[in-house]
Give the backbone structure.
Amino acid sequence: MSKDNNISSLDIEKYFDGELNKNERTRFEEKVETDAWFARKVRDHHQIRKDLTIQGNRYRIIDDMDEIHLKEFGGIPYLKVNSPEENCTEKDSLDLLGDKNAKTNPFQSTGKFVSVKIFYTGIGVAASLAALITLGSVWVAKQKEHQEVHVNSGYQDLVMEESGEGKDTNNKARKLRTIDKSIPGLSKTYVATAFAIAKNGYFITNNHVVQDCKSLKLKVKGGVGGWLEYDARVLLNDTLTDLAMVQIVDSNFMELGILPFTFSSKSVMMGQDVYTLGYPKKDIVMEPGTLSSTTGLMGDTTAYQLAMSLNSGNSGGPIFNTKGEVVAVVKGKHNGKEGTGYAVRADYMLELIQKYEAANDVVLKKPKYNQIQYKSRVKQISHIRQFVFLVEAEK
Amino acid sequence: MDRVDDNVLVGGIREGNNQMLNIVYTTHYPMIRKLVLDNSGSEAEAKDVFQEAIIILHENINTKGFNLTCKIKTYIYSVSRNIWLKELKKRLPQTKDLNDHIQFVDINRDFEKHEEKKLRLNKINQALNEIGEPCKSILVYFFFNQLTMEEIAAKMGYTNADNAKNQKYKCFKRLKKLVLK
């Protein structure tokens, strides 16, 4: 039996990989025959290998099924809000905020499954938007502080302004809103990006996107070629980092599915590949890039600099690393310098969330597991895109 | 959609034909969605229940000696029903049965096997989450993504495939320890 001692437990894996030579293999198999304890170890080992393969296959099937589901039955699984403790915490948080203006509390819904509101966008809307974009002069920094600091530095927010003219003819919803307002001519709609941070309707975007807005809407493509549209409001903002937390307050909104991505507060290394999803046009757009500096404009330590071609409408978009973790939030770009973007580090976003949680004594349902870490970028995006919303802020 | 014969579907799924999976998925999802929504479930839960049932069907079809003794529709319905009933009982112990009117068959044997497997796979997932890097990535690349050791070496920055292999042997040993503990 002394020759058996040469077989170590590392050899079991080698055996199954076919890495043992003929001589070793014979000895290995002899040992299995004669040594019951070793045979058991080999069996356990084999079972784990088999299970790993099964698990891998399952992930692949689930991927395929998710793709089918997204295509055939729409992206977002809307959950019924029916668990009582959930209702209470949310209700409390709203009360604590002391917001008397919240028109409807979505969490007081009847608990019945309500079909989602779908706005079919006609070609007319798309066409009018295209016309608006060509009008140019869309770079307006609404935020005073920003203007003071950045006015001479070429810094530019990436919120897209929709001019007040021309849009009413095409969109019924807008027409109604214009009638609602006392001085319709003075209001402007700004378009940007927001992304979900918890499945029950909490989002992050830029402060400059939502600051001083009269009304706020979050939209995402859903249903069959239509848009799902929800009323939202600002919960918390931070002018220093230019981040804001917003919440959907719409009785038609139920809940998003579990977020497939997580947030990373770890510093990103210079040269890392990243990408963002956002709405520089009336459809979601992926933009790849590289982290080019670990500080932002004029040594701003709250931000990263990105080599990425960003446009108005990208503001508030999440920056993902190759693992599909949110590492930053787009906030602006350097006007005139091609491909120089700025994004707020995710630590500050997490700080803002913590601040909200502490102030309101709630814990948001943030995602725990990154489900897309080992997926290709294409697959990652197909999972992420349903959590990245278009923001429409009327100011 | 034209009705496709069950045997064709089973054959297609066995060969890994995604077109067939697509047909099975789209034809049967509305039925399970209704079952779950009618029985205090949500849209997302319906999707999870249904996908788990399809996984069971898929794995069984690919098991040697498995014969579908009823229609695919009945099989999927029976499995989904079992999954959701079990989940409801876990939440509300007083749950007795589901409120439905579609015929189902007894698939308890397949289901029990599936539950055992589920426990084992959960342990593996948990171990993979505990094992840390670089082991997690190496094992996932090798077993899930089925990359070659050369590709893994390149991705992980090892100088050659042999170094990656040695690392993998060590990682597997650690994983095994975690799974069997």
Remarks:
- The longest strand of chain A covers residues 226-238.
